[in-house]
Amino acid sequence: MDQHEVRVHKSEENLARKDQLAWKIAEVATDSVDVTPEVTDMVINRMIDNAAVATASLLRAPVIAARSQASAHPVSIGGSGSTIFGKTLDRRFSPEWAAWANGVAVRELDYHDTFLAADYSHPGDNIPPILAVAQHAGRTGADLVRGIATGYEIQIDLVKAICLHAHKIDHVAHLGPSAAAGIGTLLGLDTATIFQAIGQALHTTTATRQSRKGEISSWKAYAPAFAGKMAVEAVDRAMRGETSPTPIYEGEDGVIAWLLDGPDARYTVPLPAHGEAKTAILDSYTKEHSAEYQAQAWIDLARKLHHEHPELSDANGVEAIERIVIHTSHHTHFVIGSGANDPQKYDPSASRETLDHSIPYIFTVALQDGEWHHERSYSPERANRPDTVELWKKVTTEEDAEWTRRYHSLDPAEKAFGGRVEITMKDGSTIVDEIAVADAHPLGARPFAREQYIAKFRTLAEHVLDVEEIERFLDLVQRLPELDAEELVGLTVVAKHGLLSSVDNPEGLF
Q1: Full-model pTM
Q2: Three-class SS of residue 285?
Q3: What secondary structure letter does DSSP report for 325?
Q4: Residue 478 pLDDT grade (very low, low, confident, very high; cuts 50, 70, 90)
Q5: Residue 216 clears pLDDT 80, i.e. is over it
Q6: Of the four listed, 117, 197, 277, 461, which is most buried by Cβ atoms within 10 Å?
Q7: What is the pLDDT of residue 424?
Q8: pLDDT tens, position by position, 142-178
Q9: Which helix (H) or strand (E) holds 148?
Q10: Could you tell me if 424 and 322 are in contact, meaning their C-beta atoms sit under 8 angstroms apart?
Q11: Alpha-carbon distance 465 to 452, whole Å?
């Protein structure tokens, strides 16, 4: 990997284009190095993963609204159009709106892949916009694999180096540039065009993290879809010869100077050297459970404690517990733990989006039920159960310096997203246990492989897709590198007959 030093430059310094981070990213996007078999296999896995969680969300309100908006924008004149999850294969739509609808469907349940380092990310959010453009532009499966490999590479490399959340900037600010770069690779654009698209995509996708604070709204699912849509539009403008703010990262009125660490900031961004394979997707990990990634290991530990200590789960057990303290990383404590100081994280009437960012709630329900379900575990009836509310209020988090250090470790064998739990009983006895990574993590007790991705898809699609449709999609996606342009259009899922029409589409402007 090349290490690129990035700092703010005054306008009179005239930072050369070739020395700007956006240009370096564009050079990675135009490097035609072969995709490794391991990366190709993982791209297929993540295509399956995205389809699984999108399928499960087709009848959820934010997805219905996004699909309704996109349906008002049929295929444009510049290509063949793109498909939308749930709709029939013969229906095509404008690619930026297909990216929008599919991006919301993928993100709605907070149930797909993740990468955590200096910042946070769901790199699978790159797939909807890159796939939409691939379908519209008549590209092949091999082209799509190359584009997705770039999208993952750029997003993960940026997340390793540049922290957004410390300045309350939403993590999708890294997604706009990565998706634009991935689309550039897909289309075989030149470095200068991709450079302009990256700048425009970044400029339009910087927003605050209020979407993930307090009472969390449905915009949490829309934010990455918006970034993907902006990336498609940025590429379109750049292809027409339009330019972007430059230098977008390093300028004295640019992103780093005013939105991030300021005029004295310095970052070191790792990017593949020329001819080096783009393998960052292999550093990412998916979710077994529909919840914020930092909750994954805690769900697994709570399930374990449920079976090892069944006495904790009944009403008598709740009464016997004095308190539960989760010792964990800075992020888990301050973002989804009691350190956030969000009363909504303890509110039984809170939105699903809020509850999936509440580790006190998640740990409580998983401990009592010994399972986690993407719908049942968030239902109002479940959240309002009196014994659950009683126990929930006894759960707090504390930052532990060692778990924070491990969270930020660059050593994959040491990097961890868990911690230690101490359950103190009213009789003075304690139950103490810990977990480093989720069971589904590559270093966990049951790492996800193709078998698990397929099982996740089958489970989530069971009541949404016909059996024949499940098998059609799985057969097609596993042949991804061989697909021609016509076959690539089939990389979507078609809902059971009448399913989408069983719900009302909300009315708007379009």
Answers
A1: 0.92
A2: strand
A3: E
A4: very high
A5: no
A6: 197
A7: 97
A8: 999 999 999 999 999 999 999 999 999 999 999 999 9
A9: helix 141-161
A10: yes
A11: 19
